[in-house]
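Handoff note, outgoing to incoming analyst
You'll be picking up this chain. Sequence as last confirmed:
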Amino acid sequence: MHPFSELQKNISRRQMLGRMSYGLGAAALASLMNPSESKADDKRIGGLPQLPHFAPKAKRVIYLFQSGAPSHVDLFDHKPLLAKKRGEDIPESVHQGQKLSTMTSGKGKPCLGSIAPMKQYGESGAWVSDMLPHTGSMADDLCFVKSMKTEAVNHSPAATFFLTGAEQPGRPSLGAWLSYGLGSENENLPTFCVMTSRDKEGTCGQLFYDYYWGSGFLASKHQGVKFRGNGDPVLYLSNPPGIDREVRRDQLDALATLNNLKHQAVGDPEINTRIAQYEMAYRMQTSVPELADFTTEEKHVLESYGPDVNRRGSFASNCLLARRLAERGVRYIQLMHSGWDQHQNLPTQLKQQCFDTDQPAAALVKDLKQRGLLEDTLVIWGGEFGRTPFGQGDINNKTKHGRDHHPYAFSIWMAGGGIKPGMSYGKTDEFGFNTIENQVHVHDFQATIMHLLGINHERLTFKYQGRHFRLTDVHGHVVNEILA
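Most recent structure output, in case you need it:
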């Protein structure tokens, strides 16, 4: 006899459920038995009762984070003067000795124009590189913010700043804040899902740290759940050999009983988190395989995402998975794709990187729009900073030169979820070095995202170590001009 079956002889299910009635285990199990009773009138599960603060324009977010920093002056910010003055140093009056990475600090700053032509698309006339034709084709659905500014000049602090509001690890990420404040719309999938991918050539050495989707000082149930590109879509999703679903259910019942006894003794809220996460994992054993099965997708949909869509772990595959998560009510979906850190391989690798990511990103937006989901789904595309308008290395070497990190002005685009389509916001100087109109700081960007989700960023706080923390620290203003 299996040991857990033996245990049932001594502890009946009725006794287990009785002991579980003190904690979250009973609520979690009850939701399995009668899901309709576990949902509020708005179908929201969890979250703070006072949220949203006002009517939201977006219900969910898909953040296409382009790690390594795409070059704004090569992709979106048309600066013909850079080509005209190729090889000439950007004037001191422009760069004013501002902080740069040690790779180019104190060295020459030769102007380097876009490596591919740009042209204007749509009625909006947005400038987009010829390397991004699919993005250009939907320009009238996008809002290009060309005046972004950040503080950090190195990758990890800059990515951490964008995703958590601080350069140092340890704060809750944006997705964790939204999970904490707004809860979920699907009890069978995580509120916050993460996927990672990289360029095929593996040219970028940037790492994806867990704190990019961590919960910081919030309960760990709010951290992102990572979907993998090989093996089980989620780690430890399959039962071990010899353990079937019924036995797994018995294990969780027994474990919940023990955890509840421990919670009654010590009162640690992380114990309740553990119970809830075990129950979520049990439900995901059914929901995730169905989610990851692309055989139900129509052929033309698969083709729209490009040739890489069926290669698990690719950016294309992750974009389609993001749409499937969005239509199932997942609150926050974070795709992180590396390969944009082009210091010495800009002429060769930027084109390849654009080819790999352009079609899937555009297909995602168009797919959401066709299904009526774009209206309440906010899609964001961008990196942790931009790249310098001047060249790095020998710009006369046709295959081996690049651009350094540039935090002072860069571009992102946004779509759907209450964003005004078909516009470009902000302006940089004629070299693309500094913002000269409508600067958008990282905290402004974060405040705007939260506003679109019905949250006053100044009021969503959490008291930790005697201080009330928030995503935007003590900064941030909503950029009302880009709101529809």
